[in-house]
Automatic annotation (TrEMBL):
The active site is at 123 (nucleophile). This is Peptide methionine sulfoxide reductase MsrB. Keywords: Metal-binding, Oxidoreductase, Zinc. One of its GO terms (cellular component) is cytoplasm. Belongs to the MsrB Met sulfoxide reductase family. The gene is msrB.
Length: 135
């Protein structure tokens, strides 16, 4: 039986009260942090990467790799229903935005230039993530 994901709905004011200004800018206003500056960019600990807004599990540390892009990169989400992909044609380029399937927060983008086995690179803002270290 497939798991039914419970959606998280909050007003923008509720999100403002829960998130730091940087998290709000990235997660709710679809901003991007500067490359090579994110707190989780060089994180190599074992654990789970969660949505920075609603704490839904998004990526396992085993799928994180060094892409050289300046942002945490993963080759697959924790499950097919953890994220949603949305076509993004802003700034004169075609990209695919990645959002949290639970709360709709902006995470980053996915590109078709990642490693095996998926060939995908989920390029995710550190400000969009929380990290839960494995015990």
């Amino acid at each position: 039986m497939a798991e039914t994901r419970t959606r998280v709905h909050k007003t923008e004011q509720e999100w403002r009260e829960l998130l730091t200004p940087e998290q709000f800018r990235v997660l709710r206003e679809k901003g991007t942090e500067r490359a090579f500056t994110g707190a989780l960019y060089e994180n190599h600990a074992d654990g789970t990467y969660l949505c920075g807004a609603c704490k839904a599990p998004l990526f396992k540390s085993e799928t994180k790799y060094e892409s050289g892009s300046g942002w945490p990169s993963f080759y697959q989400p924790i499950s097919a229903d953890a994220i949603e992909a949305i076509e993004d044609n802003k700034y004169g380029m075609r990209r695919v935005e990645v959002v949290c399937a639970t709360c709709g927060s902006h995470l980053g983008h996915v590109f078709p230039d990642g490693p095996r086995p998926t060939g995908e690179r989920y390029c995710i803002n550190s400000a969009s993530l929380a990290f839960e270290k494995k015990n």
